[in-house]
Amino acid sequence: MRILLVGAGGVGDAIARIAARREFYEHVVVSDYAVAKAERTIAWIAARHGTDVASRFTAAEIDASDPDSVEALARANGVTHVINAVEPKFVPTIFAGALAAGADYLDMAMSLSEPHPHDPYSKTGVKLGDDQFAQRGDWESAGRLALVGMGVEPGLSDVFARFAADNLFSEIDEIGTRDGANLVVRDEEGTEIFAPSFSIWTTIEECLNPPVIFEKDVGWFTTEPFSEPEVFTFPEGIGPVECVNVEHEEVLLMPRWIDARRVTFKYGLGAEFIDVLRTLHRLGLDSPTPLRVRSENGPVDVAPRDVVAAALPDPATIGPRMTGKTCAGVWVTGTGTDGTPREVYLYHVSDNDWTMAEYETQCVVWQTALNPVIALELLATGEWSGTGVLGPEAFDAAPFLALMARPEEEGGFGQTWGLDERQPASAGSPR
To answer: pLDDT value at position 195?
Structure first.
């Protein structure tokens, strides 16, 4: 397996650092528009693991907006698998470049949605991933695999959902991805500051678009941003967090392979974060469309959303100032395999103190980066295989979760996951 990693930002850098401990691949080309970022990643690997390990990595420049650039770099390096670790706006070009190069493809966020032109808070327009699924015939004909949505959410959450469907339930009422954290970021003086732990570009896209809900008797439909607030209790000391509806890939992926009456995604954003997002929207600062702006060197075209991203701390750099844990998981209700009502929460918790000590990477991007590396190892060993455009829930979850939890000294990733049995309540009322 020869891998082209597109993007050496927070998640891409963490993917390389995690992969450096594994043996399943021959070589990784770490690429970025700013090649210095890729070189920095490889320098860290050399310093931490030695030059022999670092020799399996090379740095390269790439233009992710140009499919020809992706294809050329992949072909020049005999690449078998392309990992997309940049903003989802680049999905179409990297997706096309990988297929043109005859390589398999993996991403953590899918092609972008477009709200319904007349009724955005009731009806779907172009859904997340629609553009990719429309091309599944091309991938099938080429005998290539595009594994889409293989981060943590989507990704690990979808693996959990498949595991629950195969092993824990005979009928599923609802699969609800629930994401919460107790993370705090402070400045040099120790004052808590507003610093999103993930790409603000992606966060704005997810949180201000109309959230999508799936119901088996209705299909996919939308609602208002931040709708249906609920307090969900997260494990391992995180505690109760208010969660709200957010647009996310799980809702578009899970119903394609798992039989459930309802599928939702809710995110624990917090009141301050919601207020900031609403303010950005009111001011038009959430727009990805460039505006003409006057500068000392003459007019320039700048997207307001890119200005917001530039003004905030880089999520890849805030780890030393962050404390707390983040939890990704799936709440499932329905009828257990014994015929009685059952309610469970399957989850994985990432502790920032641990990820910083082990990888010098903050916990949110590290948790996202872990799962594509596990998936690639399963593809390399043949435990997972397929062609076309497939989500994580199209594969058997058991090998993934076993490899994830197995201790490192026994060839695994040493990441335990939890199954929290909860007292069954009425449908739609998580505890």
So the answer is: 75
Is there a contact between 216 and 262 (Cβ–Cβ < 8 Å)?
A: yes
- CA pair distance 243, 270, nearest whole angstrom: 8
Distance from C-alpha of 397 to C-alpha of 162, rounded to nearest angstrom:
6
Q: What is the CA radius of gyration of the chain?
A: 21
Do the Cβ atoms of 180 and 238 come closer than 8 Å?
yes
Beta strands 341-351; 325-336: pairing state: antiparallel
- Residue 158 in tokens: 């979808």
Q: Which amino acid is at 374?
A: I
Domains 2-151+367-408 and 156-366+416-422 share a fold: no
Distance CA 263, CA 260 (A): 7
The strand pairing partners of 196, in sequence order, are: none
Q: Where are the domains of the chain?
A: 2-151+367-408, 156-366+416-422
Q: Which two tokens stand for residue 44?
A: 């860290």
- Structure token pair of residue 253: 């992926």
Residue 77 bridge partners (DSSP): none
Residue length of the chain: 431
Is 156-366+416-422 CATH 3.20.20.70?
A: no
Helix, strand, coil content of the chain in percent (nearest 5): 35, 25, 35
Say how many C-beta atoms besides its own lie within 10 A of residue 167's C-beta: 12
- Residue 321's contacts (CB-CB under 8 Å, 6 or more residues apart) are 185, 186, 187, 188, 195
User: What pLDDT is recorded for position 150?
Assistant: 98
pLDDT at 427: 45
Superfamily of domain 2-151+367-408: NAD(P)-binding Rossmann-like Domain (3.40.50.720)
Mean pLDDT rounded to a whole number for the chain: 94
The rounded distance, in Å, linking the Cα atoms of 71 and 93 is 10
Instruction: Kindly provide the residue ranges of all beta strands, DSSP E only, lying in 127-271, ordered along the sequence.
Output: 145-147, 169-181, 184-185, 212-215, 219-222, 230-234, 239-245, 262-267
DSSP H or E segment with residue 32: strand 27-32
**How many of the other CB atoms lie within 10 Å of CB of 375?**
24
Q: pTM of the entire structure?
A: 0.92
Report the helix count and the strand count for the chain, using DSSP H and E.
15, 20
From 126, 75, 69, select the one nearest 102 (Cα to Cα): 75
> 32: which 2 tokens?
């970025």
